[in-house]
Amino acid sequence: MTNEVSVDFRKNKSRNFAVTFVLCAVCLGINFLCFGLAKELKLPLYLDNVGILLASMFGGYLPGIFVGFMTNIVNCFSDTSSIYYGVISVLNAVIGGYFAQKGWVSFKKPAKMLFLITLLAIVGGGLGTLLPWFLDGVYFDSESIAKFLIAGGLEDPTMAQLLGNLIMDVADKFVTVFVVVIIYSIVPKKLKAKLRFNGWMQRPMSDEDREYLTRMGVRKISVRTKIMLLMTAAMMLMGAVAVIISFILFDKAALEQHTKLVNGVADLAASFVDGDSVDRWLLEGKESEGYAQTEKLLYDLKDSNSEIEYIYVYKIKKDGCHVVFDLDSGTVKGSQVGYIEMFDDVLTDADIPALLAGAEPGPMISRGTAYGDLLTKLRPIYDSAGQLVAYAGADVTMSVIDGYDRNFFTGMSSLFFAFFILIFAVVMWVVEYHIVLPVNSMAKCTDKFAFSSNESLGRSIGNIRDIEIQTGDEIENLYEAIVKMAGDSAEHLDDISRKNKTISKMQNALILVLADMVESRDKNTGDHVRKTAAYSRVIMKQLRKLGYYTDELTDKFIYDVGNSAPLHDVGKIKVSDMILNKPGRLTDEEFVQMQRHTSVGGEILDQVIDLVPDADYLYEARNLAMYHHEKWDGNGYPEGLSGIAIPLSARIMAVADVFDALVSKRSYKEPFSFEQACDIIREGSGTHFDPKVVEAFLSAEDECRDIAKSFGNDLITGYVNDDHVDDSGNAR
């Protein structure tokens, strides 16, 4: 049966993974279909979160996060800006999964639906609005809405774009949630249960049991929390290092790429300029021959690359930079031939001496100039005689490189956080289903492992086996070891139980044999030890039924007293046969000898207790042997104890012993009738006997009568009250 269940469980586990894979594929397709449909119909909506929310609501957090992550990865091939929105998609998946888990996805809960739309709009609209403002080359998708707002009277274009984007995102999330809730509501519960991804590594359990096991108390900090903290710290550290290193390498590569760009542009600009004409152009200006043609070539060069900020040709002298060509300098004077630019505006103090000496400097990065932060390359221009006549320069503003760096850093960070959430969800699933639930399931079963009976032991072992852990790792090894240990323990305990029963039977048999040996010396008795034990059991059960001495009358106490009752007269083994079997009344001296059987019995059992100290029943046997002739009013022997100072077992035996002596035939007397004996017991209540014990005995009169009949014909044969009782049943 167990093997059949295991096979069925493995099939269900494989089926669950296959269903989840299909669910993710379908939801990815829904995402692209809805997005393409909105684009084709030119709707001011995205609709690219429908599949994400469906995956998280039907499958759970992990499928939803996976679909959100993969949606943006796939979209990157057609639109690289999609990478920036990856974190938004996975956060939307988390929100959708949470609402489904809480049971809030329903039109019957409009407040919850409005809350869901608001959260999705905050995440999507908030981050989606900030990104275009922060990044270069990433634009708003809501230009049409912004134009409509401006046409409606909103004068601030920035505010119009911001509001337009928020309106578009709220509308998108409203439509998305509406569609998702419709689909989610019409899917039957059974199908929802099948679509739910759990990945059980053990026998599936209810949501309540899983929640209980997940949140089982721990001493200080749970394994799951430790792993989550360690994983978060490790991933954050690794992510930060990876992003920083990638950023440094990217920044270096971007700088090198733009350095090559300005080098090439500066080279081309220098090649366009005729060195022999530079001085003439400075004297004659723009009207000089060849100037206009050269200027056009330089403009064409600049226009061919949008990242080139400035192209110019300067003749550098001690008084400054004399402008030959200056394309789009931003000033009217700067575009005039012969205008002198001050060194402070375009060059640093460290560059000037080398340039005046005619050297060719490498690419220069200048910060805080009148034209901004620039990456500059100056290429010398020579005349036909080989003399340096000017420098051709090309500038790329550092803000372009900074923009690339910012885009790269933002994209890397967004991708990292999206990937982090995905990995976090995967690790959470692994920790919960591979570690926490299996370990806590074993802990719960072993904590409630019961050894009280074979049935409870069997149930406990069955509960452990029913867990069916199949993690395929050390956890499963531990589980198999626990199952084997439980089975071995059960067999061992069963063997011990059988041996204990055998020992218990031997013990009781030896007690009866010993009691019979003592009893056989007395010619006046017959089955006394058995009848008094039977009466004692009836009295004890009736006391508990009446609610008396419930703290003492445990099952163990009743068992020990009932089985050790036959030893109450063991001390008579040292009483002379002449006294024990005397047909007439005992003399005072003989009665003193008879009374010694109580203390002698206590001494005998003390010796046995020293040899077997853990046998609890011997302590009650000693109490019975030592004190069963004590009286409630203190006039008994051997110690003259009174009231509850007399052990309860001895107070019970006193009634059983005297009653059996009264109704039994002796060589020196005829038996009393059952009713007469009961009257004598009743009269002794409060003097000879404990009143509560007497009440219990008399209230169980029918049971005692049945016991009496079972041991004889018309008479209740039994053990004589060996100290010899008088006609009223009182010991002499």
What's this, in brief?
The chain is an alpha+beta fold and 732 residues long. It contains 26 helices and six strands.
By secondary-structure content and strand pairing, the structural class works out as: alpha+beta
CATH architecture of the largest domain, please? Orthogonal Bundle
SS element count, helices = 26
* Level-1 CATH class name of the largest domain: Mainly Alpha
Terminal Cα separation, in Å? Answer: 71 Å
- Contiguous uncertain segments of 5+ residues: 1-5, 330-334, 713-732
What is the alpha-carbon Rg in Å? Answer: 52 Å
- CATH topology label of the largest domain: Arp2/3 complex 21 kDa subunit ARPC3
Number of domains in the coordinates?
A: 4
Percentage of residues assigned to helices:
55-70%
Largest sheet: 6 strands, antiparallel
* Percent of residues in β-strands: 5-15%
Describe this structure in words.
The protein has 732 residues and is an alpha+beta fold. It folds into 4 domains: 198 residues, Arp2/3 complex 21 kDa subunit ARPC3 (Orthogonal Bundle), CATH 1.10.1760; 157 residues, PAS domain (Beta-Lactamase, 2-Layer Sandwich), CATH 3.30.450; 53 residues; 190 residues, Orthogonal Bundle (Hypothetical protein af1432), CATH 1.10.3210.10. Strands 3-2-1-6-5-4 form a 6-stranded antiparallel beta sheet. A hairpin with a 2-residue loop joins strand 1 and strand 2. The protein is rod-shaped and about 170 Å long.
